[in-house]
Amino acid sequence: MSGRVAGKVEGPDYRVFPGSPVRLAEIDPNETEGYTRKKEVLPELESLRKRIRRLHEKLYAENKRGLLIVLQAMDTGGKDGTIKHVFTEVNPQGCRVSSFKAPSAEERNHDFLWRYHKSAPAVGRIGIFNRSHYEDVLVVRVKNLVPEEVWRPRYRMIRDFEWTLTHNRISVLKFYLHISKDEQKRRLQSRLDDPDKRWKFSKNDLAERERWDSYQEAFEEAINETSTEHAPWHVVPANKKWYRNLVVARAIAGALERLDPKFPPAEEGLDSVVIPD
Amino acid sequence: MSGRVAGKVEGPDYRVFPGSPVRLAEIDPNETEGYTRKKEVLPELESLRKRIRRLHEKLYAENKRGLLIVLQAMDTGGKDGTIKHVFTEVNPQGCRVSSFKAPSAEERNHDFLWRYHKSAPAVGRIGIFNRSHYEDVLVVRVKNLVPEEVWRPRYRMIRDFEWTLTHNRISVLKFYLHISKDEQKRRLQSRLDDPDKRWKFSKNDLAERERWDSYQEAFEEAINETSTEHAPWHVVPANKKWYRNLVVARAIAGALERLDPKFPPAEEGLDSVVIPD
Which residues form the Polyphosphate kinase-2-related domain (chains A, B) (predicted)? Predict the structure, then answer.
């Protein structure tokens, strides 16, 4: 995969960099580094969760830098599951998930980035976008909700927005969870078959599935147009949920380690302090 | 303790109800039901965390009722620690912590409830207030930031606000974490003594400690004035952190069990669905 550059995290680097565009059809969603079973990776995942938890505690105390995590995928691609499995041990104080549905009437009266900017994390925080400003070049394009002369300039607006965040102390990590069309069928079928999951199934999912190729095309272009040095996409092989969790957790732990947050220094003059009864 | 009423949760009921006011000086912050060591309660706490996690998952899926948790305490009383230990296994998707500091210039230009109302949870969510609208009858009163004719009518405004939330599908659970003045001294001293915690110590903590009695008086009146049938306070013995966590976790699990959230029903007509390749 031409777009990969060696990083500091262990394991393969799934980042996409400008000048090395990817073709999604050439990236294997089944890749697992040779691991064959979930239990082989669980110890590493557990240790990564603990590292993320410890680093987040320091990020919060330091209160100087923040992290925005963007999760995008085809339907059933695993955005919810990734949040649940990677972030479940993180202290909810200082970690906020924002899910974006169709915009409200008020939101539609503003520029498309307005509602995402409002939800961007502050310093000291991790913000997770479950869907994001990328929907405005994905579903909007596939369903012709706005004409190309409206959505195409958004690539630049998105690059600029993320550059602004990055240069204002908020690192941006973007993950495309890459599943195959066959795997989506299996996941939809299991929602239909399992009485406990059936409530998650919507007939609308089938209409979206018919647009699979258009969505793939839109994702591929969005990923290539908005992978920048400061905010590259990660294309995560996601047919195996446990491998997807591992790859995302590694990238987040790695990003936090590069930030290297520190507990703040103590106030001056505490040595002489006596606490009265 | 006259204000206690038997509830459905296991263990003593620390709720305060109207008509049975409490005197904080008569409530023992060291109470532990006879437990003497943390490890005696850890299995129950772990099981409560799992119950909260499962019930929260259903609350989120159901998307019909929400829960607002208010945490208040004297400095070092354990608000942050309670969030960390009780909520750490909860999925951050659908659980949001709001911490309130001194109001901004914009917030000061609105009524005092404005910023809290904006942060109230939606249905399907748990919202946690780390400090809350109660600061506007606590610190504001103790430090004479506004005159009594301004802060006293706020008791009624708070009761009305919480009644409105409760009758709009958001249950309100309020916890006062009750520590002794001696215990606060120990906790401040351990922040001074431990190099890893020293950054948490502020000389301003000592000025606040001098106002201990005024704060106790303000808390006691606020608890008695705003304990209602729909939103009673819990006065939680909190000198032992592990017992405090247990009491809070029991109350939250109990409240969620009374809500008894359900996964939503499946769409009609799914039996005939065939997923195309």
Answer: 38-261
Residue B236: inside a domain, yes or no? yes
Count how many domains chain A has.
1
Amino acid at A191: R
- How far is residue B139's CA from residue B211's CA, in Å, rounded to a whole number? 10
Closest approach of chain B CAs to the CA of A182, in angstroms? Answer: 7
Q: Which residue in the set B96, B189, B264 is minimally distant from A275, CB to CB?
A: B189
Choose among A275, A271, A270, A267: nearest CA to B186.
Answer: A275
- Domain ranges, residue A169: 15-259
Please indicate, yes or no, if residue A143 is contained in any of the structural domains: yes
Nearest C-alpha neighbor of B177 from the set B252, B72, B89, B106:
B72
Beta carbons of A198 and B270 less than 8 Å apart: yes
At B203 the three-state DSSP class reads coil
Q: What is the pLDDT of residue B4?
A: 38
Based on the number of CB atoms within 10 Å of its own CB, is A195 exposed (0-12), middle (13-18) or buried (19 or more)?
A: exposed
> Measured between alpha carbons, how far is A43 from A51 in angstroms, rounded to an integer?
12
Rounded Cα distance between A114 and A81, Å, is 27
Is residue A47 classed as helix, strand or coil in its secondary structure? helix
* C-alpha separations of A66 from A62, A96, A123, B91 in Å: 10, 12, 4, 20
Question: Among A266, A234, A258, A269, which Cα is nearest to A248's?
Answer: A234
Q: Is the dihedral of CA B136, B118, B61, A253 positive or negative?
A: negative
The CATH number of the domain where B251 resides is what?
A: 3.40.50.300
Distance from CA of B84 to the nearest CA of A (A): 6
Q: Is residue B59 part of a domain?
A: yes
| B263 chain-A contacts, CB cut-off 8 A | 196, 199
pLDDT under 50: residue ranges of chain B: 1-8
Looking at residue B225, its pLDDT comes to 98
Q: In this predicted model, what pLDDT tens digit does every residue of A148-199 receive, in sequence order?
A: 999 999 999 999 999 999 999 999 999 999 999 999 999 999 999 998 899 9
| Partner-chain contact B87 A87, CB within 8 Å | no
Q: Is the pLDDT of residue A6 over 80?
A: no
Q: How far is B182 from chain A (nearest CA, A)?
A: 7
